[in-house]
Specification:
single chain; 339 residues; alpha/beta; 7-stranded mixed beta sheet; 11 helices; binds 5-S-methyl-1-O-phosphono-5-thio-D-ribulose; Methylthioribose-1-phosphate isomerase; methionine biosynthesis
């Protein structure tokens, strides 16, 4: 099962808002339908968003060709709207750009570029899993946040790719999935994926992680990323920063697993990463039921930025980038991600 795919000139996604209770696919024919799906997180996660960006441009080009309309104009309009759907994950803009670069070749070339990006994503995730497992060695108990698994990519995933590879090499005794308030990607999606893979796991509330880490219950933390600035500062799902602070205090590795496409050379530091602010109701309600008193307000940043100094390393499909805490793990001096 792929989180996102291309079939009969439509984009097919697993509707992640229904998981884990129902596995339903949506076939999306128009870019506007895909944009709605991105906004409501039916398709989500940095790498899946990259593929969605490219496939959204491909949808626009193919529909325009079918209707006898201007393919270039349709692709350019869709590209603008797709890139505005969510602001933080750099992969979305990258995917849109990759597809647009094929536009001079016409609609078929754009589809070809989107499919190539899909296939490259699967290969990248496999390589990231191996590189991450090489770096971490043989931890028995790992903790991950949000969902950086197959559902956040096309197949395999980044952080969960590392977890799966670790487990294949030497069985993990436990994987802790933080529930990830407010939309519960950890409790709903990561727990589902770990269950499917037969990897031992427990869901914990986000606030339990620091106590588990400082209590010696966790050997390593591995997370994905939505944007990595040139200096290594990393945006990921809100709550990631707290786990990084606890990991630094406890002296355990904090690994970021992400493809090269997540590194944004044009974003110098974390201060330049736009953080998506989502609807207050996501915090004030659970499963559609209001839990906060009438009149209570919320702030709902969807991501936070972990400074490079708290990160052991970023592993991509091509390289391992030692960051601020690398010296603890390897004895080497810290380096910037772009170097
Ligand atoms: O809001 P989401 O669910 O799209 O956020 C996803 C995350 O924060 C993931 O950890 C990140 O995209 C990495 S996925 C490989």
């Amino acid at each position: 099962m792929r989180a996102i795919d291309w079939q009969d000139d439509t984009v097919v996604i697993v509707d992640q808002t229904l998981l884990p209770h129902r596995v339903e696919h949506l076939a999306l024919r128009e870019p506007a339908e895909l944009i709605v799906a991105i906004k409501r997180l039916a398709v989500r996660g940095a790498m899946a968003l990259g593929v969605a960006g490219a496939m959204g441009v491909a949808l626009a080009a193919v529909r325009a060709r079918e209707r006898g309309e201007n393919v270039g104009a349709a692709a350019r309009a869709a590209a603008r709207q797709l890139a505005a759907a969510r602001p933080t994950a750099t992969n979305l803009f990258w995917g849109v750009e990759q597809a647009m670069m094929a536009l001079p070749g016409g609609a078929s070339a754009v589809v070809g570029a989107a499919l190539a990006l899909r296939d490259a994503d699967i290969a990248a995730n496999r390589a990231i899993g191996e590189r991450g497992a090489d770096l971490l060695g043989r931890p028995a108990r790992v903790l991950t946040h949000c969902n950086a698994g197959a559902l956040a990519a096309v197949e395999i995933g980044t952080a969960l790719g590392v977890v799966a590879e670790l487990h294949r090499r030497s069985p993990l005794t436990m994987t802790y999935a933080t529930e990830t308030r407010p939309l519960l990607q950890g409790a709903r999606l990561t727990a589902w994926e770990l269950g499917q893979a037969g990897i031992p796991h427990r869901v914990v509330v986000d606030g339990a992680a620091a106590g588990l880490i400082l209590g010696g219950e966790i050997d390593a933390v591995v997370v994905g990323a939505d944007r990595i600035a040139a200096n290594g500062d990393t945006a990921n799902k809100v709550g990631t920063l707290a786990h990084a602070l606890a990991a630094a205090r406890a002296g355990i590795p904090f690994l970021v697993a992400a493809p090269e496409a997540t590194i944004a050379a044009d974003t110098a530091t974390g201060a330049g990463i736009p953080i998506e602010e989502r609807d207050e109701d996501e915090v004030l309600s659970v499963d559609g039921h209001r839990i906060a008193p009438p009149g209570a307000r919320a702030v709902n940043p969807a991501f936070d930025v972990t400074p490079a100094e708290l990160i052991t390393a970023v592993v991509t499909e091509r390289r391992t980038l030692p960051l601020g805490r690398a010296a603890e793990a390897t004895g080497s001096a810290p380096q910037a991600a772009g170097s």
